[in-house]
Amino acid sequence: MDAIEELQGLLKKLPGMGEKSALRLSYHLIRTDESFNKALGNAIATIKEKIHPCPICGCYTEHDICSYCSDGTRDRSTICVVEEPQDVLSIASSGAYNGLFHVLGGAINPLGGIGPDNLTFPELIRRIEEGSFKEVIIATNPTEEGDTTALYIRHLLEGKDIAITRLASGLPIGGDLGYADKLTLMRSLRGRIKF
Question: Which residue has the higher pLDDT, 144 or 58?
């Protein structure tokens, strides 16, 4: 195996990267300035040392507490529950939501070996019981796993004096929050419905 094949093989392991794209990117990196390649390699090599989940919400951060949890101007009466840390950025960048977040770390997927015990439900319940939240916005992906997770959250919150809402239509079925545009996310947040 030569160096190009080795690089292509590694790049193919990235999400959304097929064989042709990996080869195209490999050739691009060969033509690219060496200082860029070294900086890219260093950024990749040190990312796990620099970034960690926020101990409060689970969003990725370089600091002790993420910028969302430490921001005193955010609405502390609403909490938006998402599957993955990148979903936080998608929703926050829409500009339509200014509350707090909670990252589950995935969605319930029994066939994939992910059950409720593998996600951060206990931390979510603790935050709700210790906080002064009036609304929980369930922003799981509109997939079977996301819907199952949303139903589970609703079940966990039964009997609690808190409004439970789910993102409204506008997000494509089977889609991923990370690929939704800002306008779609803004409409989904503004048009959320009681769940």
Answer: 58
Question: How is residue 53 written in tokens?
Answer: 């989940």
130 contacts: CB under 8 Å, gap ≥ 6 = none
Q: What is the pTM of this model?
A: 0.79
Residue 46: how many CB atoms within 10 A of its CB?
Answer: 10
Buried b (16+ CB within 10 A) or exposed e, 79-95: bbbbbbbebbbbbbebe
Count CA atoms within 13 Å of residue 121 on its CB side.
17
**Confidence check: pLDDT of 171 > 70:** no
Which of 5-14, 130-139, 165-174 is predicted least confidently? 165-174
- CA 106 – CA 94 distance, rounded (Å): 21
End-to-end CA distance of the chain: 54
C-alpha span between 6 and 3 (Å, rounded) = 5
User: What phi and psi, each to the nearest 5 degrees, are found at residue 163?
Assistant: -75, 135
Residue in 73, 186, 98, 195 with CA at minimum distance from that of residue 146 = 195
Q: How far is CA 166 from the centre of its chain?
A: 16
Task: Specify the pLDDT at position 190.
Answer: 73
